[in-house]
Amino acid sequence: MDLGIAGKQALVCAASKGLGRGCALALAKEGVHVTIVARGREALEATAAELGKVSPQGTAIRFVAADITTPEGRAAALAACPQPDILVNNAGGPPPGDFRNWSREDWIAALDANMLTPIELIKATVDGMIVRRFGRIVNITSGAVKAPIDVLGLSNGARSGLTGFVAGLARKTVQHNVTINNLLPGFFDTDRIRTVVGGQAKSRGVSYEAALAERIATIPAGRIGDPEEFGAACAFLCGAQAGFITGQNLLLDGGAYPGTF
To answer: DSSP string of the chain?
Structure first.
């Protein structure tokens, strides 16, 4: 399927690795001019080179080494891609732990990274999308928004706040062909999941391998997700054909969530 977005401009956050990288790859393959942002320059350069190899000739690939959760980092990203047609919000999740050990500063950091940063980037870009009558905003949140994970309280709270905000705004922008949706990853092969599983293993006093096997056993698909298939779902939501989809929370978890809705 031709998604009809060749030549569009995309800003993809936390895109040097994992799910953000998967999204950037899928968009680059569609001929989207992609600007990727992450903190680590070495990984960014490697990912940018890979995007250049898979994208059609003439596609512009840019990278910005910056912390998107800071005002300075957002300014640098927007300077490199001032008028994105596509915005993929993503940032590393806060560490797992027991809520009794979290300070106010821990909560503020989680909110800054996983709620307020996406909102600031939406605020900076959505009006331009409305003027151009095309915009696709995809927020990478977490399957924990639907089925909270006990050790991820910081993430559960911050991402749920973003979800509530998006639910209202997405109904206002869609009349201008600007959609806002959330992608909720389950168990994907990323550094983040390895950290979470490691934290769970430590808290339970079991090996990492045992904790990993237990988690995979709860997934009806019988496997871990591939970041590139996550990216394909993101690219579809960014496509011209997805203009009637807004304010939705799309769960990609191999069937692990047991509910009907």
So the answer is: ---S-TT-EEEEES-SSHHHHHHHHHHHHTT-EEEEEES-HHHHHHHHHHHHHHSPTT--EEEEES-TTSHHHHHHHHHHSSS-SEEEE--PPPPP--GGG--HHHHHHHHIIIIIHHHHHHHHHHHHHHHHT-EEEEEE--GGGTS--GGGHHHHHHHHHHHHHHHHHHHHHGGGTEEEEEEEE-SBSSHHHHHHHHHHHHHHT--HHHHHHHHHHT-TT-SPBPHHHHHHHHHHHHSGGGTT--S-EEEESTT------
State how far the Cα of 145 lies from the Cα of 159, in Å rounded to an integer.
7
Query: Most distant CA pair in the chain: distance in Å?
Result: 55
Q: What is the pLDDT of residues 108-151, one digit of tens each?
A: 999 999 999 999 999 999 999 999 999 999 999 999 999 988 88
The residue among 57, 30, 13 whose CA lies nearest residue 241 is: 30
Is the entire prediction scored with pTM above 0.90? yes
